[in-house]
């Protein structure tokens, strides 16, 4: 095995690892996926994770990015700043009275294959039901 062969093998292994780490879960909705990816890998100022979900789960939804822009989301994190909020209850600390979000929001409630609407874990900030 030459150095070039070793480098190629390592590149293949890293590509496979990256694909595994960023794979869309079974029936995972768009917002649960994007939230999971932004928490794990951050937002790069684009709709990178939204596009990745669409390519994997709903390739015919070619206007998904445009619909995100209509709710003021021009990057992945803006989906949650301008468009959607989680429906999980806020936790109250009984001793101090402080309110805070749970440490993690996990467990997508699932959507059928090809559906671009988020699961019931998410609601629009302005009260609209669809985007």
TrEMBL record:
<protein>
    <submittedName>
        <fullName>DUF2695 domain-containing protein</fullName>
    </submittedName>
</protein>
<dbReference type="Pfam" id="PF10905">
    <property type="entry name" value="DUF2695"/>
</dbReference>
<dbReference type="InterPro" id="IPR024248">
    <property type="entry name" value="DUF2695"/>
</dbReference>
